[in-house]
Amino acid sequence: MLGGLVALVSVVAAPASAIEIEATADRPSVRVGEAVTITVRALRADTLAEPPPLRAYLNVGAEWQPTRQSVASQRPGESGAAKSWEFQLVALAPGNTQIFPVIVTVDPSGRPGSVLPVNGAPVAVEILAESVAGRRLLVIAGVLAAGTGVYRAIRVMRRRAARRKRHQLPPPLTEALGMMEEIRAHCREDRAVRFLTDLDKVVHGYLVRRLERPLAGATGAEIVRLVSPHVTEQELLTALEELLRRCGTIKYAGWRGTFGDLEATAQLARDTLERLDRAWVPNVSPSAHSADLEN
Question: What DSSP string describes 228-290?
Fold first, then answer.
């Protein structure tokens, strides 16, 4: 039974009754694992000023695996009514096969048109069994490739380890305060959105490193619940929630404050992170709130 359809690129074509299809193979037979190139040529009569789009397909059996297709082109010496395509199939199993070229029209929106498909004459290609010598060469090549891949993987791992050793991350608070000072130095009222967005990233980055878990998509209230097992001061948790609210509001409501408000938010961020770092209790067992968030 014939298998999947291999789609080619759309071209402009005339009605189905005026289309002639020709398909050829670059060789009459291939072995399993080898590729064959199929060339499809469509010739039409210019009967319409604006002919509907045309799509060409190959109807192939399970013995073939499509690997490549080309854009429709025009051969030297051919008229504008002739188009050609080339695409590649790899043989998967031995047998005598036939490859059928098919063309259908579609309307400009991409939906199938009312014209029936045009089937071209099939191309016969025989798939021969893989040779013993070829199989041995493939096995040897696979072993060599695997060995090379392992060697390269080890080298990459060693380079990454050396790079991490050279670039040890500073403590979370040190990193966050350094980044905060950098963005604060460029703070201007006409860049309020950018400033608060960057500040939000710094605060989230600090909390991600402290909690040792991603926080993408978590709300401010959910983040506070995750932090609460590590910090017992309710006032500090309230300050953290307010900080997250200020930074998060910019994403939805825009900025309507003053430069003084920006300075106050930056100071709140610095004070809150410093107090969190002093009050942080590490290595606590996950709370019920954390389990609820993960579920």
Answer: TTT---HHHHHHHHHHHHHHHHHHHH-----HHHHHHHHHHHHHHHHHHHHH---SPPPPHHH
pLDDT for res 236: 92
Q: Give the CATH number for residue 123.
A: 2.60.120.570
Strand-strand pairing, 64-69 and 123-128: unpaired
**Taking each helix axis from N to C terminus, what angle separates 259-279 and 192-211, rounded to the nearest 10 degrees?**
10
- Only one residue has tokens 């005339």, namely 14
Domain shared by 124 and 238, yes or no? no
Q: What is the pLDDT of residue 227?
A: 93
Q: Do 177 and 123 share a domain, yes or no?
A: no
Question: Which pLDDT value is given to residue 146?
Answer: 62
Take residue 173 and report the two structure tokens written for it: 């608070």
Shared domain check, 184 and 76: no
pLDDT of residue 277: 92
Segment 231-243 shows an average pLDDT of 90
Query: What percent of the chain has a predicted confidence (pLDDT) above 70?
Result: 62
Q: Which domain holds residue 255?
A: 172-294
